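Input.
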Amino acid sequence: MRQLVLVVCLMLGGMQAAQAAFFSDDEARKKIAELQQQLTQLQAQIQGKLDDEAKQRQTLEGRVVPLESQLKSQGMIELLNQIERINGEVARLKGQIEVMAHDIEVTQKRQRDLYTDLDGRLRKLEGVTTPAAAAPAPQPGAPAAAVPPTSVPPSAAPPATPAAPAVDPEAELKEYETAHALFKAGKYGPAAEAFEKFLTAYPDSKFAPNAQYWIGYAHFSQKNYKTSIAAQQKLLQRYPEHQKAPDAMYNIANSQIQLADIDAAKQTLKGLIAKFPLSESAPLARKRLAAIESLKSKN
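Output.
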């Protein structure tokens, strides 16, 4: 546009020189005034177009910046979701390892029981009495043992405490594996119910903390985030130092993020890092905390 203005000025200058040669002074001045007026109008039109182009450019820049920010935020959220899926797969693998470790322990116990039973049978066949069955011979000069009372009044006898029913380790393991298989198959609702049933039947089981964790994770997988938080908090209350405790805190933070409670999620992640700095969930918590801070600074 500036080059066009220069060309117009040169043309007008040439026309002014030509007209000065053919017209009188008054006519030349009149023509020059008209040309100057036309030039001023043309410059105003050109300046107006330049201003319009500048406004359009500013408008486009104003649209592009939010779009870039939105695309970056969506990319970060997708990355967080991928990390969460990977963490879920790692958690499922850890559960399988726990079940396998229990299987090995049960197998070893069976082997010990079989060995004890076989050893007892061999002793009976050989006519050898076990040391526990042989009564120690009294030593010469030793005082006689106190004779117990012949009878005890019924009123003085302590009340009999009912013996706790024996736990069948095979049934316990089978029920836990059934619930865990439902979770691995993606049947999160039935899996949560199966784990609840397991905890009712075996409240003191070594798998009780794991079952409580999987209940919370199953609800998280169904997007029942408030229920998931409640289940994981129950784990932290009952087993605050268990190895699943940091995983439960990490799951609580992710549920809080999904509920848009970012401040609470940050506090949960900070608490996880402070209480369990050497856990496997601590590096994940640091990355998630850094991602949250990055998103807030961009927005």
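The two ends are 39 Å apart (CA to CA).
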